Amino acid sequence: MTITNRFQRIGAIGAAAVLVFSLAACSSGQEEASASSTDSSAAAPAGADEVLKITYIQKQGDQQYFVDEAEGAKAQAEELGNVEVTMVDVGTDSNAAITAVNTAVAQGADGVAIVVPDAKIGPQVGQILDKAGIPYVASDDPFELADGTAAPWVSIDSLTMGQQVGEKAGELYVAAGWSADDTRIISVLQEDLGVCQDRETGQLEKFTEIAGETPDVVRVGTDNSTPTALSKTGAAITANQGVKHWVVIGCNDEGVTGSVKALENSGVSADDVIGVGLGAYLACKDWKAGVDSGNKAALYIDGRVDGAASVKVLVDHLRTGDPIPAETLGKAVMVDADTWEDSGMLCG
Amino acid sequence: MTISTGSPSPTQIAPPEDKSGAKSELSFASKFVARVGAQNLSLIVALIVLAAAIGSQNANFFSLPNMQVIGEGVAILGVLAVGQTVIMLLGGLDISVGSQAGLASVVSAMVFTSSGSAIFGMAVAIVVGAVAGLVNALIIVYGRVNAVIATLATFAAYRGVVNLVSNGSAQGYTGGDDVFTFLSLGKVAGIPVLILVFLVIAALVYTMLTFTDIGRNIYAIGGNKVAARLSGLRINKYVIGAYMLMGVIAAIAGILLTARTGSGQPTSGSQGLELQVITAVALGGCALQGGKGSIIGTVLAVILLGVLTNGLQILGVNSFWQDIAQGTMLVIAVVIQQRRRGTRAVGLPD
Question: Mind giving me the DSSP string for B272-319?
């Protein structure tokens, strides 16, 4: 093996530089990880004329619920006055969420609301924001910190959402007088998302409790979009010939609506489908049009209320110094073709 | 491995513009362009213009913490892009890099959780990465399958494997471990370890490509496979080696992902990385046909993408526009690349 002089020089200089710098400044990261939370409640409250910068980090910002949430957050900021809200969409990317949190810190945000793509990153998020002394709330999906305590949280959790959907589906199933022998439950979800798993658990638990039995479950794995739900449910129908009745539950309205549509496309009557959505923003379109649909009900979660509440609790904390409430419940109501308009929801 | 004696750098070999004209006739500007490379120079100019535009709108943009955020944000992408550069220089492509990173992320966290040893977890993840890369190479070489199709297949297959292993959910908690914490939050010489890992890998691969026969042969194979074969190069050996290297690098990216997020992430954080990685490498001047490109170009492109993402985020630009900006940059970069190749102005690409 022969080595050039140039290569030797570069290597030697590089190695020496690395050694010198390493000895000069090296951090294990433990100081950062274990840095105690700055007691933000002890900080002087901000005056009403002081502009507060809130960073709102969302997952899946292209979904209608999160679009509404962003609108609610901005409207609330305007109403409160002297509040700037920066919305950041990180899709389902946990790594991007950590980067967004770091960016908020670097930008000197006064508060952070975050919808974590995965609750498992909660300890990392808490660690970064605690160290920076920035107050934060978990919006929509709760998460725990490294010490096992829960972060202040706004909205309704996935398990509870799922239970409300399961309860309604169970009630409709009993009212229809169907039996488990000729019924299948289609559970449509993105299987690798923790929140979807929680919702499904709640849905099936509560359905069984209300209905007293559980028809066979056909799990349809999707990317939480309507087109995938449509195509994948088509295959599930093919594999389950002879089934008379279908109950459709899912992780969001896209999935449930897509599956209900696939059943209708395959010739299943709307009377033989009980679809209970989550979000109601797509199910309402059938109701608004007055068409006979398998979308029988949906849990309407007002994203605008949750978005506004997240901003409000942070601003209240920053301006008054009062602690952030451990839980701030959002608004979730079960709606159907007859009641959706009364709930105050807008159907675009 | 043979280390060459004073071999010219790949940028001197590959780009045609570097060879044009006698050195003595070149003006200072021409010499400077030839030295830095037109592609790298255009990336530096783009970077300066972009940074100036964003910095003029937001005073915090140039702050040290924000520079650190940009560096940490692109570290995982950068690590993968360095590996992809080697593959693309050979004339190949690896679409499965994100899935491989996800697999390694989950494996490192699961092995760590069951064994209690972070180092063992990381070692197993790197072995798994090397095996994943080897499988890609074997499909390409012995199955004689086009690299795009082969890695498209393993992109889906590895994603399936990782979801099966993890049941689709994030695994373990690594935030309390010293080694993982050092990777995610530690600093050496004031530089975050995440950024340092990226720079060290880039430097090592740069050295391999620039100063060794292996690197020169990779350029030769990518530039003209037939000539390389006729001159006695064992192309299959290089393909297998490059894909295994990519697997190992993807595993390192997966380990960084685990350290950063505090858990093994099967999908989140690695899904969509392949598109970003290919964007970065193409933007950095790597020819899709192989044989042309450099690690410096790739690193500059990664930084450019990081600055763009960070800038659009702090300026509050809708994320949909961020996607459009990234796609537009890729198209512009590839069109410029094609024009510089001097191929027909209109018609289907070669």
Answer: THHHHHHHHHHHTT--TTSS---HHHHHHHHHHHHHHHHHHHHTT--H
